[in-house]
Specification:
heterodimer, A: 4-stranded antiparallel sheet, 11 strands, globular, B: 46% strand
Amino acid sequence: QVQLHESGPGLVKPSGTLSLNCAVSGDSISRGNCWGWVRQPPGKGLEWIGDVCYTGATTYNPSLKSRVTISLDRSKNQFSLTLTSVTAADTSIYYCAKSPGWYKIDCWGQGTLVTVSS
Amino acid sequence: QPALTQPPSASGSPGQSVTISCTGTSSDVGGYNYVSWYQQHPDKAPKLVISEVDKRSSGVPDRFSGSKSGNTASLTVSGLQAEDEADYYCSSRAGSNGYVFGTGTKLTVL
């Protein structure tokens, strides 16, 4: 059974860079699937951020594309999210996620709250 | 890409059926058979319920069903139970732009 676990700072300063990792257990990120991130502002709806497939190919939400990088770390079997030039609007619960294809997410991390504040 | 449109709320009594709609465009819902539905209980991660319009995820009761007509997809929950009370989100392929989620619907079991 695949499990995902997010880690990273819970507080980031405005104009700074948000960095999160997602550790994967129960599967190899190099064997298949796409690995991505979804965020949810407290009390609000879900927003897809982007993903990276096992080939290294990436797809990003057009509204965030200029600020987002998602990458694989095959040696640690984890993947990461970097979001630059953050503002208070980026305060959200960030979920890492696994997609086996067919545009569905079949496994989610428990989520981690990141607050952007000085 | 704009979020898919869902009603903010839906409700039904135990045993009744309720249908939640998800309206997009020909560039997302109408253009692909890649509509998924997720259930999210308070303070929990979302859980996949339906994928590819009408395929139930493993372990999901057959009370949950999905369909699509044109640019609108629907999730029907039959025989409502208390544990079905949750937020529900649709999502769709959005061409080369990846995914787009719906605005979310809070389902209340009266």
